[in-house]
Design a protein that fits this description.
This protein is mainly alpha-helical. It contains 8 helices and no strands.
């Protein structure tokens, strides 16, 4: 193929592009579409003012009946759900840290207490212990419970999953805490 044939092909492509753009511009001039001043229909939402304000002020750290939550869980299910966590955390005694800290003896331990793991600043400065309530809130949505945590996991939405994992974590301890 010589250069003249190539020039014809490129010219034809450019001509088609110019025709499409030109026809579009000409049709916009010929057919002027005016937008209506008033919308054809309006979607009305029934929201009480107090309700909308409360939902914005609502925090994720609300009171939860932990006894009721824990009653929904079981150890066998917790072992199954913990497999998601096992990619980043070890649960065995002496298992050591992975991407996340070792979780053996975690229930009742101070948050950010392992000396051989580099916690995020938010977890290192958090002044609470991993109680059943704290674990429940954290496992629901870690980034909302402790703002600034480097844990990238989205959380466990199902109450049964969280309760089962908490029971499973409590089992893997030198002295498991008594259930409330």
């Amino acid at each position: 193929m010589d250069s003249f044939e190539l020039n014809k092909i490129i010219g034809a492509i450019l001509l088609v592009a110019l025709l499409v753009i030109g026809i579009g511009k000409i049709s916009n001039m010929v057919f002027k579409v005016n937008k209506p001043e008033k919308a054809g229909y309006k979607v009305e939402l029934e929201v009480e003012q107090g309700e909308a304000v409360e939902s914005k002020k609502e925090t994720t750290k609300e009171e939860v009946d932990i006894v009721a939550v824990l009653s929904t869980g079981d150890l066998a299910h917790g072992e199954k759900v913990f497999k998601k966590c096992a990619a980043c955390h070890s649960i065995k005694s002496g298992g050591g840290n992975k991407i996340g800290p070792a979780l053996y003896n975690v229930v009742g331990r101070k948050v950010g207490a392992l000396s051989d793991y580099k916690y995020s600043k938010a977890l290192a400065e958090y002044e609470k212990n991993w109680s059943f309530e704290e674990l429940n809130g954290f496992l629901l949505k870690p980034k909302d419970w402790i703002k600034g945590t480097k844990m990238a996991y989205a959380g466990l939405r199902k109450e049964k999953d969280r309760a089962s994992v908490i029971l499973y974590l409590n089992k893997y301890s030198d002295t498991p805490l008594p259930l409330p």
